[in-house]
Design goal:
Helix content: 25-40%
CATH architecture: Alpha-Beta Barrel
Radius of gyration: 16 Å
CATH class: Alpha Beta
Number of helices: 7
Number of domains: 1
Oligomer: single chain
Number of strands: 10
Strand order of the largest sheet: 7-6-5-4-3-2-1-8
Strand content: 15-25%
CATH topology: TIM Barrel
Order of helices and strands: EHEHEHEHEHEEHEEEH
Distance between the termini: 6 Å
Shape: globular
CATH superfamily: Aldolase class I
Length: 213
């Protein structure tokens, strides 16, 4: 059975084409200026023109206000809002209702205590994403190329579908899925030649592994 994959932080037509051709189930666009992967709403709208309706379009925000989210939704056909900051369960539920979009909440994982945080969002979000907790002094909450101990989430039952993220590459994907039990994976820095520069060859290689799992 193949594993569904999300390619996040896309900013070029070539990367979009590689993701679509390789069978990505989700494509992600970052709206967080400190990230080297950030795009404008207009740019995301233009890139979405090449994305078929069968592929979910995800907008990543970090503690964004309503105006910032509205600006993106007005310019791009987004299916899922991904909240990657300190958004509360109440904020997640409010945004889901206000914007009539599915919401995915990213949970930073470093130890068992962080799993209790994830449980707080099970009645508010539509999906969860497990990512590695950023290192001290990091300027962004994700996309840092770090993995966490996949055993921490292995064998656990969640009310919601979830994605595995954090430091994944084509070379690590088999082990990560085997240990964690993930059915959906998310990659960003692991398919780049430099921060923010997606490599179409690496995207194709990652998706080839995902299809074969």
């Amino acid at each position: 059975m193949s594993v569904a994959a999300k390619i996040c932080g896309l900013s070029s037509e070539a990367a979009i084409a590689a993701a679509i051709a390789g069978g990505a189930s989700y494509v992600g666009f970052v709206f967080y200026p400190p990230s080297p992967r950030t795009v404008t709403p207009a740019r995301a709208g233009a890139l979405c023109a090449a994305v078929p309706a069968s592929v979910k379009r995800v907008a990543l925000f970090v503690d964004a206000d309503d105006a910032a989210i509205t600006a993106v939704l007005d310019a791009a056909p987004i299916d899922i809002l991904q909240f990657h900051g300190a958004e509360s369960p109440e904020r997640v539920d409010e945004a889901k209702r206000q914007f009539d979009c599915q919401v995915m909440k990213a949970i930073s994982i470093a130890g068992l205590d962080d799993l209790a945080v994830a449980a707080r969002y099970e009645d508010a979000a539509d999906m969860l994403l497990f990512d590695a907790k950023p290192p001290p002094g990091a300027t962004r909450p994700g996309g840092n190329g770090l993995a966490f101990d996949w055993q921490l989430i292995a064998g656990r039952d969640w009310k919601l579908p979830w994605m595995l993220s954090g430091g994944l590459t084509a070379e690590l994907l088999l082990e990560a899925v085997h240990i964690s039990g993930a059915h959906i994976v998310d990659v960003s820095s692991g398919v780049e030649s430099a921060p923010g520069q997606k490599d179409p060859d690496k995207i194709r290689a990652f998706l080839e592994v995902a299809r074969g799992l």
